[in-house]
Design brief:
By secondary structure, this protein is of the alpha+beta class. It folds into two domains: 147 residues, no CATH class; 172 residues, BirA Bifunctional Protein, domain 2, CATH 3.30.930. It contains 14 helices and eleven strands. The protein has a six-stranded antiparallel beta sheet. The protein has a five-stranded mixed beta sheet with strand order 1-2-3-4-5. Helix 6 crosses helix 7. It is elongated and about 80 Å long. It starts with 10 loop residues before the first helix and ends with a helix.
Length: 412
């Protein structure tokens, strides 16, 4: 079904119209928005809201409003007080445009004039961010349905922009957890959530200290449309001149029933690093598994459904860009190497992984990490999911130590 705010052609205008409609229809939401924009100002009562129009004038078409350079949202009291909002999604903010808005308001007889930009980029001096507005719209049970519709539309718009690869570094919404709603898993929603997660994790101080380079990009685009999984990765310091298929990287993936954070050793891992892993021997791999379990223990204690895991996959590609055939998928709980409740001892799974690794004759990828089943980890549906995934990545540090990359950031 076509969304109620889709009659505009430009994303900025669509988002602005959605917000202006909610502000005009819900006075409590309007008051909360003004407080968000002007926390130190006590505004007048009985505020009115205009969208891309001048108070007291007829509403222009979208093209006319663009030609005239009107504010996206004009909040006023019908007297001398007003708050003007210039909304941007991917376009830059122009100080000249803001001054034009002030001059226009003065010509309309307003004397107490506030001008704010509303942007989708974090690296801005603007007082308002779209993601804060999104969180505000979702934060309360408002008197009307309009704030909820606005929040929903911002999510839909962000999904479209992720799909079209037009969103860049903009963020229309804030992360509130991994949840797919009544319709179940959808690629667009999963890609939107993954993008938010990676933006947060990339700047996590603890991950940067472990070796993540926040300035190195992950995937150019989130692919997987039509599948039940999306994934992206964080690159390690010192890998700027290396393809991610030749160097360890930290991977986060979301499927229809789980989220996981892992360190990935790709099939084409550089020879010196592959030799270091092989040189550990089967005894060294068992010690590595125990170290990984110990590092994940605080996380598993807090969230008992979390699973410290190893995953080895053998792929075969009929052509370079084709979907691969999966010839083998070995995935097991690392606690099978140590035993103890609730997991039974079965160290042969790890032995099989080591023998396959040391005598590789096919395309093999190896991963260690922590997996969170969505149906048994309700915390993944909350903002705490970011910290859970961060801690899961931190728990893979023993692999970096085994590879001799623990201090890669300092050595880079």
């Amino acid at each position: 079904m076509r969304q109620v705010f889709d009659q505009y052609s430009q994303n900025e205008n669509r988002a602005s119209h959605a917000l202006a409609t909610a502000l005009a229809r819900d006075t409590d939401f309007c008051a909360a928005f003004v407080k968000l924009a002007l926390p130190d100002v006590r505004p007048p009562h009985n505020l009115k809201v205009e969208c891309q129009s001048v108070p007291g004038s007829s509403v222009p078409t979208e093209a006319e409003a663009e030609r005239l350079g009107l504010p996206d949202i004009w909040i006023h009291d019908g007297g001398d007080w007003c708050l003007l909002i210039e909304a941007k999604v991917t376009a830059p903010v122009s100080e000249r445009q803001l001054e034009t808005h002030r001059s226009r308001a003065r010509r309309q007889g307003f004397t107490t004039i506030y001008v704010k930009t509303l942007t989708a980029r974090n690296n801005t001096d603007a007082g308002l961010l779209w993601r804060d507005v999104h969180q505000l719209a979702k934060s309360c049970r408002w008197a009307t349905i309009w704030p909820a519709l606005t929040a929903e539309f911002l999510e839909v718009l962000e999904v479209r922009m992720v799909h079209d690869v037009t969103i860049g570094d903009a963020n229309l919404t804030g992360f509130s957890g991994i949840e797919f709603g009544d319709d179940g898993y959808g690629w667009g929603q999963a890609a939107r959530l993954l993008r938010q997660i990676m933006n947060e994790l990339r700047r996590e101080p603890a991950l940067v200290a472990m070796g993540v380079d926040p300035d190195l990009p992950g995937r150019g685009a989130i692919t997987g449309r039509g599948t039940m999984q999306v994934w992206d990765y964080l690159r390690l310091a010192g890998s700027a001149d290396k393809d991610h298929t030749h160097w360890p990287h930290l991977t986060v993936n979301i499927t229809h029933d789980a989220a996981a954070a892992k360190i990935t050793l790709p099939n084409s891992l550089e020879r010196v690093l592959r030799k270091r892993m092989t040189a550990l021997g089967s005894v060294g791999w068992r010690q590595l598994a125990n170290d990984l379990v110990n590092c994940a223990t605080p996380l598993v204690s807090a969230f008992p459904a979390a699973v410290p895991m190893c995953r080895m996959i053998q792929r075969r590609y009929p052509s370079q860009r084709a979907t691969p055939y999966i010839d083998c998928l070995l995935e097991f709980d690392l606690r099978t190497c140590a035993g103890g409740p609730p997991v039974k001892l079965q160290p042969q799974w790890l032995d099989a992984a080591f023998r396959s690794w040391s005598d590789r004759q096919s395309n093999l990828q190896l991963q260690f990490g922590v997996q969170f089943p969505l149906d048994r980890c309700p915390e993944m549906k909350t903002p705490a999911a970011i910290h859970m995934l961060r801690d899961a990545l931190l728990a893979t540090k023993p692999v970096l130590q085994a590879l001799g990359l623990e201090h890669s950031k300092q050595d880079a």
